[in-house]
Design brief:
The complex is a heterotrimer of chains A (201), B (296) and C (550). The radius of gyration of chain A is 17 Å and the shape is globular. In chain A, α3 (58-69) crosses α5 (95-113) and α5 (95-113) runs antiparallel to α6. Chain A has one domain: Arp2/3 complex 21 kDa subunit ARPC3, CATH 1.10.1760.20. Chain A has 201 residues and is mainly α. Helices cover 85% and strands 0% of the residues of chain A. With 296 residues, chain B is mainly α. Chain B folds into 2 domains: 10-120 and 223-294, no CATH class; 132-204, no CATH class. Helix content of chain B is 74%, strand content 4%. The longest helix of chain B is centred in the C-terminal third of the chain and has 35 residues, at 261-295. In chain C, the strands form 4 sheets. In chain C, strands 6-7-8-3-9-10 form a 6-stranded mixed β-sheet. Chain C has a 6-stranded mixed β-sheet with strand order 16-17-18-13-19-20, sandwiched between helices. In chain C, strands 2-1-4-5 form a 4-stranded antiparallel β-sheet, with no helix packed on it. Chain C is globular. Classes of the chains: A mainly alpha (201), B mainly alpha (296), C alpha/beta (550). At the B-C interface, α6 and α7 of B face α2, α3, α4, α5 and β16 of C.
Amino acid sequence: MQYYIISLIIIVLSMIPFFLMFERRRPQAREIVLIAVLVGITVLARSVFFMIPFFKPMLALVIISGIGMGYETGVLTGTLSAFMSNFIFGQGPWTPWQMFAMGMVGFLAGIIFSKKYTYEKYKYVVCIFGLIATVVIYGVIMDTASVLMYTGNITVSSFAAAYISGIPVNIIHALSTVLFLALLQKSMIKKLNRIKTKYQI
Amino acid sequence: MENQFERWHPVSQLAYYVFVFGISVFIMHPVITGISFISAIFLGIVIDRKRFLKMFICLYIPAVIAGIIINPLFSHEGVSIIWYFPDGNPLTAESIIYGVMAGIMIGSIFTFLFSFNKVMTSDKVMYLTGCVLPYIALVISMVLRFIPEFKHHLSEVLVARKCIGKGLNEKNLMKKIRNACTVMSIMATWAFESSVDKSDSMRARGYGICRRSSYSIFRYTKKDIVIIAVILAACGYMVYAIMSGAVYVQYYPCFKMEQSKIAAGFAYFLYAAVCILPVFDIWMEERVWKSLQSKI
Amino acid sequence: MEVFTIKNLTFKYPKSGNCALDSVNLTIKKGEFLLICGKSGCGKTTLIRHLKTVLSPAGEKDGEIYYEGTLINEVPDRVQAQKIGYVMQNPESQIVTDKVWHELAFGLENLGFKNSAIKIRVAEMASYFGIQNWFHRETKELSGGQKQILNLACIMALNPDVIILDEPVSQLSDIAAREFLMLLGKIHEEFGVTVIIVEHRLENVFPMCDRIVVMDKGKIVSLGDKQQTIENIKDNDFFDAMPVPVKICAKLGAKPYNVPVNVNEGRRFIEKYVSEKQCVKKDDGVHCGKTVRENIIAIKDVWFRYGKNGDDVLKGLDFTIEKGKLTCILGGNGAGKTTLLYILCGILAPYRGKIIIKGKNIKKWSADGLYGKLIGMLPQNPAALFVKDNVYEDMAECIADKNCVEKKIEYISGLLDINDILDKHPYDLSGGEQQRCALAKVLLTEPEILILDEPTKGFDGFHKRKLAEILKKLLDDGVTILMVSHDIEFCAEYADICALCFDGGITASGNAKQFFAGNSFYTTSANRMVREYFPAAVTPGEVVSLCSIT
């Protein structure tokens, strides 16, 4: 269990710079509003598709916000969406991990795509990114977290068991992310661009 | 109606939960973990009896049992061998004890989480965040404002679309998802457009002129100060007791607990006293009201 | 002393040919209550947005604006934020935070006030505005009227010298609007705050204000006090927006500069007028021809509540809707009107009673048969219907037969006069245009029964008349129209049948003229003015024509 506490401290520390950066900068009204809107939409999407298990549009939306608005917004949308949606679905020891994992996905999406994204060129790349990010980043982080949370013994075999047993769930999650990216990518990015010109960003 | 515990200052509540979560995760000691579990159950019952019992029986007990069963299956350490599994691995008394303790510990964390989710409402979390990160806290407050607004608009859209024959009741799953995505995407448009008004309204009221302050309606009372002091003191003593080995437990290779009686006893007492503090407070309040009523 | 001085302000939006403001000159005096009115799109909102730098629209600007003698751009942001308050049109979209207390403190937080200072100011505001009872509530639970009062209180918390309001009551029901304006009047009187209000629903505001600016096509066409304004715009078509007593009395030849502006003055005027001119008293004017009635919808003993433990919203409601007529259901907030609409559309199901549409119980209609061909509903918020990036695509979505998309859209857009805006983004349209496009979408599904929820909300007289024309055309095509509304004047003018919904039932219904003539409080202001002499006259036009018969 000490491992859990130590790892928790590490992931919390890794998120803090992003929050501090945001605070230091004194973000403008439109940035704050846009992040709040993106988080709101993402949380709403999670509760709309709540009925279908493991079929979550959240990561897709986080990736889209990262692409459309840059890595900082990606991180904040990811972490805050995980945090806020857990007010509906219940907070627990998993919350920081979810925040970290989703923040990471948003961060990477922003870093990789935000500068050069065009729909025609990158639509498939983004879908593949979604697939990999869901399985490799989100899936692995959450499976690691559950090993740390629920079993005391930190051995290679217990991690291996957790990753292997997590594969089916992660695959479904990844497929849903890809599906949502395919369906929403074009229109959402277009909307973000439209609003960006409206705000003169 | 809020109970006495829910009326504590958020900082006191946070201190309480950090303390109980921290200690119960930090050391898996039979007495300490037992105290956690029992007081968490009491707290759950006091806060929302009906829902708690339902959750307790359906979710927490199975989690405890799972913990108890799983450990001996995987862990074969320990010297007191009871039996051999068909594959030749031993079943040890130590692994069973460890499993039971691990199960109870996870059970107590879940049980504390039940009350945590009830007590630490979003506005308190927002306040606590605001103490350190005022701008993030503002985003949280705005998200809390947007979600119901979006939900309302979503139901408007769904009704409007149903009435022109574009409802969501498609049989084909793929079409259903596609329809849902159309609705989602229009929700996004609407949300973005309405955000323009929001940011105007913020700027019209001086947002961005200087560094924001963060106002709150929570007030420290004398009681809160006492509570925080007690928790801090207890925390200090517990850490000392654990570090110095006054409270000590070892599971493998053989089960061992501490020897010194007084220091450990005091630690148990202190921990139990803090754990049960909210329940005690709620109970005291009820007594006061009853006695006030009987005087009339 | 002047608060604002506007000198030769000309403004042009980017990518637009016409000037939104055309050499506007205006001085606004300290402590006055100034009303700015004019048709939609006349530039009134553009003008007041220029009075606060952060809200000024982007575009080509020429001319100067001074705030208390300083150029507005040189007034520090902090002073502008505190001293110039701005309340926007939509009560919903201005609220930023989730709790009422937080919203009240929001502006003060922005200015970096200390916690103790905010506490006092917030307490003051909450007490003055009577907010203390909902101080701890979440903003989502408030009614529209409460939301707008909260917005005003938030502005007042900053202790402004000027409050600028952009159609603050256009989204509110009549009662909520009156309450809001009363509060505004009180603030103006008690604190001497300068009030600049833009509004097109003049009925309630007009009697309150000191001076009135009337704008048209970016220019100020009239500026003066009430009587001066009445005199100035007598021949302008904006005169139609004036309060009913003004319209009637001016038409009947009231002396210039002495025109009654409220119902009470109007009654006295009519009294004198009738005795002088010896008009023929007519109290039997209500005739209604018996025609063959054919019911298209019958609602029989319908009971409804939200949730098992809720209160009954509809309590044994009985009503029939005639084919080919325009039926209006009136009533206050929470009377169950919208619930009734939802039940008629099959979105909610009553727990007792039945609804028969074209002789068949609503439960037996399939979703495909009911929506799209039989019933179409235009929601209160027309924006809820748009899902695409331009109007044309949005309309095309509603046409099942892909071969005649173009033909159908051409026909409908001709009917509704939206030819020019087909390629625009639905969210870039004005309220009236949005509504017409949404209506086009509904009509493309070719419903026999058209249901409208508060279609006149937030519209000026011109758009109301346009809507009425469209409804007339549809009625001629044999469509049955049912609408729910607060707008008594509109219903009196255009409806065939009116019904009053109250406390979960229909308390009165009948031929529109009969209905209003029979009511003594819930009736048009024209009727209230002249009911002693001409009980059957409910619209200004009727009053004028009856008075002219001597």
